[in-house]
Amino acid sequence: MELLPIFLDIKGKSCLIVGGGATAARKAGNLQRAGAAITLVSPHLCESLARQAEAGAFRHLQRPFAPADITGNTLIIAATDDPEVNRQIARLAGERQIPVNVVDDPDACTFLLPSIVDRAPVTIAVSSGKTSPVLARMLRTRLEALIPAGYGRLADLAGRYRERVKARFGEPRDRRRFWDRVLQGAVAERILAGQFAEAEAVIERELAPDALESDMGEVYLVGAGPGDPDLMTFRALRLMQQADVVVYDRLVAEPILKMTRRDARRIYVGKERNHHAMRQEEINRLLADLAKDGHRVLRLKGGDPFIFGRGGEEIDTLAAEGVPFQVIPGITAASGCAAYAGIPLTHRDYAQSVTFVTGHLKDGTINLNWPALAQPNQTVVFYMGLVGLPIIVERLIAHGVAPEMPIALIQQGTTHLQRVYSGTLSTILDVVASDPPQPPTLVIVGEVVTLREKLNWFSPPDEPVEGATTVIV
Length: 473
Ligand SMILES: C[S@@+](CC[C@H](N)C(=O)[O-])C[C@H]1O[C@@H](n2cnc3c(N)ncnc32)[C@H](O)[C@@H]1O
Description:
Bound molecules: S-adenosylmethionine
Number of helices: 17
Structural class: alpha/beta
Strand order of the largest sheet: 3-2-1-4-5
Number of strands: 17
Radius of gyration: 30 Å
Oligomer: single chain
Strand content: 15-25%
Mean pLDDT: 91
């Protein structure tokens, strides 16, 4: 380790900043957030510093640096645009053994200010040593994205209960197990989901003298999006890393499955057309039973769980039986496939509304409100419409849609196997006849399909994109 990371308490302590530009302003912001009593020496101030000086955020000495300014400070930042002055400050600080940071001169620094992820009271500091502040900033940005804002609240809660937990569990080992449960289990999840009162209720239950060792588990109903792993939400990714059982079906792409915890138990529940590894009622039962056994269960579904995903039925059972759950939306096939095919689903000139319907065949027919779907100036998206395509074409034309109406079929959208078949209602059956698309395939009907000629941007990669999203291990 080239430098020792420490967290310094500078609340109310005198700190000196020399310089009045944008860099000085940034550093002043960090010191202010940590509660320092700042003196800033500079003949001129940039706009933001001038505003802060006026508001009394720091003491401003409007003149050039003088050696006597050094005395009595806990730390010093030299941020003038004159390297000579900065070096002089560093030398004087060094003589008095006051930590000094010199802007753009790592060799003259005795401490560096890291890039910070602020989830107060949790603070994450990133440093690349003296090599590359840009790299440190990039890493910080990635951490920002992966660490939910709610972690500050979680730390607050832990702080408030610390003494009570100490009194309740005499043995350090028991305390650690308790905190492991709280910080990685139901309490943490409630806090991160913004359910603060529920989080406190759980922790109170766990602290009760007669509390059982193992808490009830939880079900995360997560939308995995249409295929490209990069299209998942941060929350989905975090919960994927937390669950110890994964219940998934056919539509979940392999690269996404690989992002779940390596030691998690995986249960395939099928859902291929006409071939269900498990019936819906059995899946509902399984989820409830696993959670009641204390497991954190990831129910991974393709696209969005609430759009033709039967997510509502699955959590209905959980709600009825008092099993905690969360629903994490995913990008539905219509959004994902349309975007990756260059087809805007609405457009001021062509479609003022979009309708999602199921083209699923029941008893050899598709029971839909065809007159409504045949109205002009709209886009109609058929999920599960591949097998019933001849019926869709026939019904739309029978209800007055022009045979020239553009239509596109998107096979395995957003993945490396994406393929788009396009034509009109009168030609599409011939287009697909010679080389039939593979499921899952989405059908889009509407004038907007013609925009693809101009707006198509996505060329599927040759290989599946693995680990396109960073996995937290
Ligand atoms: C049972 S529905 C599930 C929909 C899912 N819940 C969603 O929000 O996307 C399955 C249908 O979604 C469509 N679909 C899902 N993923 C797809 C993809 N990557 N490419 C094309 N169509 C897809 C197909 O029409 C498929 O038959």
